[in-house]
Amino acid sequence: xxxxxxxxxxxxxxxxxxxxxxxxxxxxxxxxxxxxxxxxxxxxxxxxxxxxxxxxxxxxxxxxxxxxxxxxxxxxxxxxxxxxxxxxxxxxxxxxxxxxxxxxxxxxxxxxxxxxxxxxxxxxxxxxxxxxxxxxxxxxxxxxxxxxxxxxxxxxxxxxxxxxxxxxxxxxxxxxxxxxxxxxxxxxxxxxxxxxxxxxxxxxxxxxxxxxxxxxxxxxxxxxxxxxxxxxxxxxxxxxxxxxxxxxxxxxxxxxxxxxxxxxxxxxxxxxxxxxxxxxxxxxxxxxxxxxxxxxxxxxxxxxxxxxxxxxxxxxxxxxxxxxxxxxxxxxxxxxxxxxxxxxxxxxxxxxxxxxxxxxxxxxxxxxxxxxxxxxxxxxxxxxxxxxxxxxxxxx
Length: 396
Known about the structure:
Helices cover 62% and strands 12% of the residues. It contains nine helices and seven strands, in the order αααααβαββαββαββα. Helix 2 packs antiparallel against helix 3 (67-110).
């Protein structure tokens, strides 16, 4: 039976040898840090075998093990070491091969291709890395696609806005020159020119205001001053402001809301979004037809729908109705007195800034725009139901 003293001798001797071998292995790993995984694994196996052999030899010397027994033990250790070296080389080569496959897939991305997960079975860590690379490349591709689409939209927007600005400016210049050169002198024509100059100036102001609002939305500089409001109040105010345009065109406006649904919003901005939708609906609805605005709730969201009788939007145009520079034949072209044709894009930006959603679909004789906003957790002050009811009576 081994004594305590012998056990202590064996323990500190083996520990010392293991520490020396580990220190040598760490130094070797630092020197070979930039080498392949196979080389690093071989160094680790060498450290293990060296520590084991050193311990066996020292212990055999200290405990006077016979040469025959020592030869047997050394043979076992050497065979185990060879097996360890073999496994290290196989594992290292496999990891290196997987790394090369991963590197090749990444290089394909750099050459203008798309990242594809290597077909071979990868170690868990490399497989996880490959999956993350695939997801990242997909997100980057989507971002690049959005950026290209946005850049194309900006170029189209600049071209169209330049045209829309030149038209009223040309008219203003012609009328100003006529007045300046006294080509027009009769009071009635002069008065008409003055009224036209005022109308064109207002139109330019609207266009510039739309452009400024859209630039704030895209720059993330839209500052919201939220307060608790009733959805019926927002609808009522929108109908009142749009009533003159509807009356001038002979379009009936109807509005209703399912109670004072509370929303925590910037009332000025959301009111602008609603006005943009209603004015867009009025402009594209024939006379003697109706535009209907309905407020309701659905799945914890306040829902506002604006339905018109424009005849519908072609199915291929529906996904692009809210794009910055898109002007479908029946969807967005601004008419006289309008802004820059950016009303729907501005409405989307405002609603999305409130964590809401906006969508459009063909329904009935026209199309229906739908806004969804989160309901507030607390109810607002009781709203004036008479205002909305009065607006509704005016439009029936």
